[in-house]
Design a protein that fits this description.
cuticle, Larval cuticle protein LCP-17, 17% helix, alpha+beta, 125 residues, disordered N terminus, 1 helix, flat, structural constituent of chitin-based larval cuticle, Cuticle_Struct_Prot, Insect_cuticle
Length: 125
């Protein structure tokens, strides 16, 4: 079970990282060859793993986008559960600084960021 949770977590993390680094793909370009722009090149990368495959990683791209992620094993009812936490930071095309923090564990994915939509307040009545 741990291996599948780890694989799912790492796969999700890599997919999110790819989206941040490469950005949205226009429909016409989705089927053609792609090369990363010079601004999306990774200029700084650090990663640490222990014998249990717990980890911490950070990378930064030339355009200033930063991704940090860590995975820690915690006891669960069916064995160890990978708990992830991290953040993404990048500048949107309109110039806004986008900052997303998240946790992901056996209760799901929990993103937090000022740019995320929120539900309207409940009306009493």
């Amino acid at each position: 079970m741990y291996a599948s949770v780890l694989a799912l977590g790492l796969g999700l993390g890599l997919a999110v990282c790819a989206c941040l680094v490469y950005g949205p793909v226009p429909a016409a370009a989705a089927n053609g060859p792609r090369t990363p722009s010079s601004s999306s090149l990774i200029v700084n990368h650090a990663e640490v793993r222990d014998d249990s495959n717990q980890y911490w990683l950070r990378f930064e791209t030339r355009d200033g986008a930063v991704h940090e992620d860590q995975g820690v094993l915690r006891p669960g009812p069916e064995g160890p559960v990978l708990h992830r936490s991290g953040s993404h930071r990048y500048t949107a095309p309109d110039g806004r600084l986008i900052q997303l923090r998240y946790t992901a564990d056996d209760t799901g994915y929990h993103p937090v960021g000022d740019h995320l939509p929120t539900a309207p307040p409940l009306q009493s009545g």
